[in-house]
Amino acid sequence: MTNNHPKRRSPKPSSPNNNHHNNNHSGNGNGRTNGNGKGSKNHIYRSPLLEEFRNNPNKNYTLKDIFGSGIEFSKDQHGSRFIQQQLSSSSFEEKEVIFNEIREVALDLMTDVFGNYVIQKYFEHGSDVQKQVLLEQMKTKIHFLSLQMYGCRVVQRAIEYVPLDDQVSIVVELKDSILACIKDQNGNHVIQKAIEKIPIEKIEFILDSLRTQIYHLSTHPYGCRVIQRLLEYSKAEDQEFILGELSKYTYFLIQDQYGNYVIQHIIEHGKPEEKNAIVDTVTGSVVEFSKHKFASNVVEKCVMFGNEAQRAIILDEVLKNNEEDNDEPVDDRSPLGLMMKDQFANYVVQKLVDVSKGQKKKVLIKKIKQFLKQISKSNYGKHLASIEKLIVLSETAVTSDDEE
Known about the structure:
Layout: H1 48-55, H2 70-74, H3 77-87, H4 92-102, H5 106-110, H6 115-125, H7 128-138, H8 142-146, H9 151-161, H10 164-172, H11 178-182, H12 187-197, H13 205-209, H14 214-218, H15 223-233, H16 236-247, H17 250-255, H18 259-269, H19 272-283, H20 286-290, H21 295-305, H22 308-318, H23 335-340, H24 345-355, H25 358-374, H26 384-396
Helix pairs in contact: 3-6, 6-9, 9-12, 12-15, 15-16, 15-18, 18-19, 18-21, 19-22, 21-24, 24-26, 25-26
């Protein structure tokens, strides 16, 4: 779901890049309680040890130096980061002392803005016993954690680092709420992680839960991501089922705010016959789709990932009424004229300049130059940058290809 033109894309939901276990977190801790009491709205009471730690960033501390303060440090921005860094290199004994301090409040830490990162690190660097202790606290709480902003990161990290049986146990707790999780801004990441990390035959209930919802989920801001993961990891027959469902709605998905990402994914990663069906739909409406905010993404992907014959068909559509290598002016209402003036379609033209070859590329560049001379740039001020880019592309493009 990669977008090349941020200026014209609707923001990806949670975009997520949405790595729900990214350890680069920010915040200043203002207004937070730390287990040692609460002051006024803008003041937090911290222990002398934590204050000293925060005020001496250049002093070399180890986990031993904060024994007895594991919970307070875990809930503090700087303390949490310190523990995370130390857990990757500390001795088992040091990690065990801190773990024993926080284990009774582990569930609370899982949903804490800074504490969740400490729990994640224990799944990554902790012992098998420590991981089992954490899993025990998570039992019957997976659904709650998966829908919580910080808890969902812990569930994802657990799925990455626990044995297969435990992975399956985690996801089985979500068996009756798969759709609800997929449609949730946090829960969808847990379902994606499960699909990526667990053998699909162990979690077939995920697809079973949404067999009647393929099109609906493909047009959903979070569901479209899960459909893409299923296309990547499902068994061949299940992929065929999903593609079969999607094929009924190709024309509409191409133009959908979220469905276009699913179609792009198929163009980029699908089998030739799967791509062909989409390209066939696109070639019937090249200008219409190229001028569409979302469909234009799909046309670009067809240009980039289609075969030579498919690219040629699209280029022929764009050059209709301008295919002759002559000095005739470009009609404003011709496909090329309409596309060059359009805020979305001009990117398709740019992509065609990038990837086309031979005589047709020479004609395309010639016609672009002609049209740019014809139009008054002042009339298209908001697209000026795009038109300038076309000028640069057309001037610098290699026009001596002999591929044809």
